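Input (Reverse transcriptase zinc-binding domain-containing protein):
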Amino acid sequence: MHLFDIYPQEGEKDTVVWVPSTSGSFKIGQTWHWLRRRQDRKIWHRLVWFSQAIPKHSFISWLAVLNRLSTRARQKQWTPTISDTCILCNGSPETNEHLFFKCSYTRRIWQQLSSMLGIPFADSWQVLLQWMGKKLRRKSLHNLLIKLAWNAAIYHTWLERNRRFHQQLFKVESMIVQDIQFEVRSKILGFSRPNSSLLPMGIACKWGLETIVKH
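Output:
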């Protein structure tokens, strides 16, 4: 169809119609969805972005799942002369897969947290993402506890890595676990009405949450 093939209707007023809108009216929200590039949601999006999350934890987790953390292995791609050895264990190249949680240091942290959470231990980054993405869809305090602890483990791993790299300060694994336990417990206890369903008392006691579990 060409413009000269269109003839105005006599006796009718000209009107402007915004084609991307279902109503024909211009709406910012619908226009934004029309203009932006839509992609399927990733299986990990609910693990990182959820309403009860700790924002600084989610931000680091987001960078981690996108493989955008400035690990030493990535830095070596830009500067080949620097070492890419993991500063936490001094045993392997510092990559995402290594840090979360194949590194002997972070592995012990995640092993202890997995036991406290009552979930199977896995040290493979991709296996863990797939498992959590499929298993943690249901809303419950137990699932929320797992997501908060996982994000906190990633955050404190990166925090400890940077602390050693920039300040030459060190924390043993048990101190990192205590830091994670404190932050997660404080977050959950701050909820006005935490949904304590499906949280076993044994797990609640390990996190200091026994007072909110329904009997």
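The CA atoms of residues 108 and 173 lie 7 Å apart.
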